[in-house]
Amino acid sequence: MTECYKYNSPLGDLTVVVEENFLTGIWYPGHEPAGLPARVSQQASTTMMSVVRWLDTYFGGSIPDFLPPLNPAGTPFRHKVWKQLLTIPYGATTSYGAIAQAIGCRSARAIGNAVGHNPVSIIIPCHRVVGTDGSLTGYAGNLDRKSYLLNLEHK
User: I need a labelling partner for 144 at 20 to 30 A (CA). Which of 28, 65, 121, 128 fits?
Assistant: First the structure.
């Protein structure tokens, strides 16, 4: 069963999708993939409640001490990159090149592609990836949102 929920965040209403008790996506307004159910769930599953609790904690300025069960759709390479993103500490940043080196990949561009296709924004922290010089670079949610998230983590 696919469960959709609109989470009211400081960055707009996020679309949260849980499938078969796993979080499969969090999207910013206007970035939702085609084919999602039009109906928003009236009753939240345990997994959906854990995602909401995680987001409430995060946007409340605290570090969540758990991860909801994740199962984003992607290639094995993308999963490897997303798993590496989960190791970036709250409040820290890293570069595409550093991620490439950490997973034994020669191409920072391939890393950028995988980061850009992360379907679980915020929880899989692609916003923590910056340019080698520390500059804010591409973010599907836009650079203002990326800046907001990084500033939230530095308070």
Answer: 65
